[in-house]
Fold this protein.
Amino acid sequence: MSQAQYKRVMLKLSGEMLGGERGFGIEGDALQFVAREIADIQKLGVEVAIVIGGGNIWRGSRAAGWDMDRANADYMGMLATVINSLALQGILETKYNVYSRVMTAIHMQELAEPYIRRKAIKHLAKGRVVIFAGGTGNPYFTTDTAASLRAREVSAEVILKATKVDGIYDRDPHKDANAVKFDELTYFDVLSKKLNVMDATAITMCMEAGIPIRVFKLGEAGCVRRAITGELGGTLVR
Protein backbone atom coordinates (compact mmCIF):
# COMPACT_ATOMS: atom_id res chain seq x y z
CA MET A 1 0.00 0.00 0.00
CA SER A 2 1.37 3.44 -0.94
CA GLN A 3 2.24 5.89 1.79
CA ALA A 4 0.20 9.02 2.42
CA GLN A 5 1.85 12.29 1.41
CA TYR A 6 0.16 14.14 4.25
CA LYS A 7 -0.33 13.54 7.97
CA ARG A 8 -3.36 15.80 8.51
CA VAL A 9 -5.86 16.64 5.78
CA MET A 10 -9.03 18.64 5.34
CA LEU A 11 -11.60 16.85 3.17
CA LYS A 12 -14.16 19.24 1.65
CA LEU A 13 -17.37 17.59 0.44
CA SER A 14 -20.39 19.19 -1.15
CA GLY A 15 -23.76 18.27 0.28
CA GLU A 16 -24.81 16.97 -3.12
CA MET A 17 -22.31 14.13 -2.68
CA LEU A 18 -24.61 12.66 -0.05
CA GLY A 19 -27.65 13.01 -2.28
CA GLY A 20 -26.58 10.37 -4.81
CA GLU A 21 -27.62 10.80 -8.43
CA ARG A 22 -30.43 13.17 -7.51
CA GLY A 23 -28.14 15.36 -5.45
CA PHE A 24 -31.02 16.02 -3.08
CA GLY A 25 -31.63 14.73 0.43
CA ILE A 26 -29.47 11.95 1.87
CA GLU A 27 -29.14 8.72 -0.09
CA GLY A 28 -27.97 5.68 1.85
CA ASP A 29 -25.54 4.24 -0.69
CA ALA A 30 -23.91 7.63 -1.28
CA LEU A 31 -23.54 8.22 2.44
CA GLN A 32 -21.97 4.79 2.97
CA PHE A 33 -19.59 5.31 0.03
CA VAL A 34 -18.26 8.52 1.59
CA ALA A 35 -17.94 6.82 4.98
CA ARG A 36 -16.00 3.91 3.45
CA GLU A 37 -13.58 6.31 1.77
CA ILE A 38 -12.91 8.01 5.09
CA ALA A 39 -12.47 4.70 6.91
CA ASP A 40 -10.05 3.65 4.16
CA ILE A 41 -7.70 6.61 4.58
CA GLN A 42 -7.67 6.17 8.34
CA LYS A 43 -5.80 2.91 7.72
CA LEU A 44 -2.94 5.04 6.38
CA GLY A 45 -2.68 6.82 9.73
CA VAL A 46 -4.01 10.07 8.29
CA GLU A 47 -5.68 12.57 10.61
CA VAL A 48 -8.94 13.60 8.93
CA ALA A 49 -10.89 16.83 9.29
CA ILE A 50 -14.06 17.26 7.22
CA VAL A 51 -16.34 20.09 6.12
CA ILE A 52 -19.59 19.19 4.35
CA GLY A 53 -21.84 21.60 2.53
CA GLY A 54 -25.61 21.60 2.91
CA GLY A 55 -26.75 22.07 -0.69
CA ASN A 56 -28.51 18.72 -0.79
CA ILE A 57 -30.95 20.06 1.79
CA TRP A 58 -30.93 23.83 1.42
CA ARG A 59 -29.06 26.51 -0.49
CA GLY A 60 -29.24 30.09 0.72
CA SER A 61 -29.20 31.35 -2.86
CA ARG A 62 -32.60 29.69 -3.46
CA ALA A 63 -34.22 32.29 -1.23
CA ALA A 64 -33.12 35.19 -3.47
CA GLY A 65 -36.42 35.14 -5.35
CA TRP A 66 -38.51 34.67 -2.23
CA ASP A 67 -37.76 38.06 -0.69
CA MET A 68 -36.14 36.22 2.22
CA ASP A 69 -33.37 37.92 4.14
CA ARG A 70 -29.98 36.56 3.02
CA ALA A 71 -28.69 36.14 6.55
CA ASN A 72 -31.72 34.07 7.52
CA ALA A 73 -31.30 31.87 4.45
CA ASP A 74 -27.62 31.33 5.24
CA TYR A 75 -28.41 30.28 8.81
CA MET A 76 -30.79 27.69 7.38
CA GLY A 77 -27.91 26.42 5.24
CA MET A 78 -25.73 26.12 8.33
CA LEU A 79 -28.36 23.90 9.95
CA ALA A 80 -28.37 21.75 6.80
CA THR A 81 -24.63 21.15 7.23
CA VAL A 82 -25.27 19.94 10.78
CA ILE A 83 -27.79 17.37 9.50
CA ASN A 84 -25.26 16.08 6.96
CA SER A 85 -22.49 15.98 9.55
CA LEU A 86 -24.57 13.99 12.03
CA ALA A 87 -25.57 11.55 9.29
CA LEU A 88 -21.93 10.96 8.37
CA GLN A 89 -20.91 10.57 11.99
CA GLY A 90 -23.65 8.02 12.56
CA ILE A 91 -22.52 5.81 9.68
CA LEU A 92 -18.82 6.18 10.48
CA GLU A 93 -19.26 4.99 14.04
CA THR A 94 -21.97 2.36 13.81
CA LYS A 95 -20.96 0.69 10.54
CA TYR A 96 -17.22 1.34 10.18
CA ASN A 97 -16.10 1.71 13.81
CA VAL A 98 -14.44 5.04 13.09
CA TYR A 99 -14.55 7.34 16.11
CA SER A 100 -15.59 10.86 15.20
CA ARG A 101 -16.64 14.19 16.63
CA VAL A 102 -19.02 16.75 15.16
CA MET A 103 -18.03 20.28 16.18
CA THR A 104 -20.41 23.12 15.39
CA ALA A 105 -19.70 26.81 14.90
CA ILE A 106 -23.17 27.52 16.32
CA HIS A 107 -23.72 26.01 19.76
CA MET A 108 -26.21 23.15 19.97
CA GLN A 109 -24.73 21.20 22.83
CA GLU A 110 -27.33 18.42 22.85
CA LEU A 111 -26.24 17.40 19.34
CA ALA A 112 -22.56 18.19 19.00
CA GLU A 113 -19.54 19.80 20.62
CA PRO A 114 -19.01 23.54 20.22
CA TYR A 115 -16.01 24.34 18.04
CA ILE A 116 -12.92 24.94 20.17
CA ARG A 117 -9.70 25.01 18.19
CA ARG A 118 -7.40 23.35 20.73
CA LYS A 119 -9.98 20.64 21.42
CA ALA A 120 -10.35 19.94 17.70
CA ILE A 121 -6.57 19.53 17.38
CA LYS A 122 -6.58 17.17 20.35
CA HIS A 123 -9.30 15.02 18.75
CA LEU A 124 -7.32 14.83 15.50
CA ALA A 125 -4.12 13.90 17.31
CA LYS A 126 -6.01 11.03 18.98
CA GLY A 127 -7.04 9.69 15.58
CA ARG A 128 -10.66 10.80 15.67
CA VAL A 129 -12.33 12.15 12.54
CA VAL A 130 -13.47 15.71 13.20
CA ILE A 131 -16.45 16.99 11.21
CA PHE A 132 -16.82 20.76 11.30
CA ALA A 133 -20.47 21.79 10.93
CA GLY A 134 -22.26 25.13 10.80
CA GLY A 135 -19.87 26.80 8.38
CA THR A 136 -17.96 29.68 9.96
CA GLY A 137 -20.96 30.46 12.16
CA ASN A 138 -21.60 33.63 10.17
CA PRO A 139 -23.85 34.38 7.19
CA TYR A 140 -22.42 35.49 3.84
CA PHE A 141 -19.58 32.94 3.99
CA THR A 142 -19.49 29.65 2.08
CA THR A 143 -18.52 26.23 3.38
CA ASP A 144 -15.46 26.48 1.12
CA THR A 145 -14.36 29.43 3.22
CA ALA A 146 -15.18 27.42 6.35
CA ALA A 147 -12.97 24.58 5.09
CA SER A 148 -10.08 26.97 4.41
CA LEU A 149 -10.49 28.64 7.79
CA ARG A 150 -10.62 25.38 9.77
CA ALA A 151 -7.76 23.90 7.73
CA ARG A 152 -5.63 26.86 8.68
CA GLU A 153 -6.68 26.75 12.33
CA VAL A 154 -5.88 23.05 12.81
CA SER A 155 -2.75 23.14 10.62
CA ALA A 156 -4.02 20.78 7.92
CA GLU A 157 -1.36 20.17 5.27
CA VAL A 158 -3.75 20.08 2.31
CA ILE A 159 -7.38 20.61 1.37
CA LEU A 160 -8.82 17.72 -0.62
CA LYS A 161 -11.81 19.09 -2.51
CA ALA A 162 -14.00 16.29 -3.85
CA THR A 163 -16.06 17.20 -6.92
CA LYS A 164 -18.04 15.60 -9.73
CA VAL A 165 -15.24 16.16 -12.27
CA ASP A 166 -11.63 14.95 -12.29
CA GLY A 167 -10.00 18.33 -11.73
CA ILE A 168 -10.22 21.97 -12.74
CA TYR A 169 -11.12 22.92 -16.31
CA ASP A 170 -11.15 26.24 -18.12
CA ARG A 171 -14.91 25.76 -18.57
CA ASP A 172 -17.57 23.26 -17.63
CA PRO A 173 -16.56 19.90 -19.23
CA HIS A 174 -20.15 18.67 -18.92
CA LYS A 175 -21.27 21.45 -21.25
CA ASP A 176 -18.25 21.77 -23.54
CA ALA A 177 -16.34 18.74 -24.84
CA ASN A 178 -13.41 21.03 -25.73
CA ALA A 179 -12.85 22.11 -22.15
CA VAL A 180 -9.18 22.00 -21.16
CA LYS A 181 -8.08 20.44 -17.87
CA PHE A 182 -5.33 21.96 -15.75
CA ASP A 183 -2.91 19.62 -13.96
CA GLU A 184 -1.54 22.38 -11.75
CA LEU A 185 -2.42 26.01 -11.07
CA THR A 186 -1.28 28.80 -8.81
CA TYR A 187 -3.70 30.50 -6.43
CA PHE A 188 -3.37 33.63 -8.56
CA ASP A 189 -4.28 31.65 -11.69
CA VAL A 190 -7.53 30.55 -10.06
CA LEU A 191 -8.39 34.11 -9.03
CA SER A 192 -7.35 35.84 -12.28
CA LYS A 193 -9.02 33.28 -14.54
CA LYS A 194 -12.13 33.33 -12.31
CA LEU A 195 -12.19 29.53 -12.22
CA ASN A 196 -15.18 28.23 -10.30
CA VAL A 197 -13.30 26.07 -7.80
CA MET A 198 -13.67 27.81 -4.45
CA ASP A 199 -14.76 31.35 -3.72
CA ALA A 200 -12.14 34.11 -3.68
CA THR A 201 -12.11 34.38 0.11
CA ALA A 202 -11.30 30.68 0.47
CA ILE A 203 -8.58 30.78 -2.19
CA THR A 204 -6.99 33.89 -0.68
CA MET A 205 -6.94 32.31 2.77
CA CYS A 206 -5.18 29.21 1.41
CA MET A 207 -2.73 31.39 -0.50
CA GLU A 208 -1.81 33.38 2.62
CA ALA A 209 -1.25 30.18 4.61
CA GLY A 210 0.39 28.21 1.78
CA ILE A 211 -2.16 25.39 2.02
CA PRO A 212 -2.32 23.43 -1.28
CA ILE A 213 -5.70 22.40 -2.68
CA ARG A 214 -6.10 19.06 -4.46
CA VAL A 215 -9.26 18.95 -6.59
CA PHE A 216 -10.32 15.45 -7.63
CA LYS A 217 -13.34 13.41 -8.61
CA LEU A 218 -15.19 11.50 -5.91
CA GLY A 219 -15.93 8.49 -8.05
CA GLU A 220 -14.40 5.03 -7.88
CA ALA A 221 -13.67 3.25 -4.61
CA GLY A 222 -10.32 4.28 -3.15
CA CYS A 223 -10.25 7.68 -4.86
CA VAL A 224 -9.66 9.63 -1.64
CA ARG A 225 -6.78 7.33 -0.67
CA ARG A 226 -5.23 7.76 -4.11
CA ALA A 227 -5.60 11.53 -3.85
CA ILE A 228 -3.64 11.41 -0.58
CA THR A 229 -0.93 9.09 -1.89
CA GLY A 230 -0.49 11.05 -5.12
CA GLU A 231 -1.71 8.25 -7.37
CA LEU A 232 -4.80 10.19 -8.45
CA GLY A 233 -4.19 13.09 -10.78
CA GLY A 234 -6.83 15.77 -10.43
CA THR A 235 -5.59 19.35 -10.22
CA LEU A 236 -3.22 20.78 -7.65
CA VAL A 237 -3.51 24.45 -6.69
CA ARG A 238 -0.55 25.88 -4.81
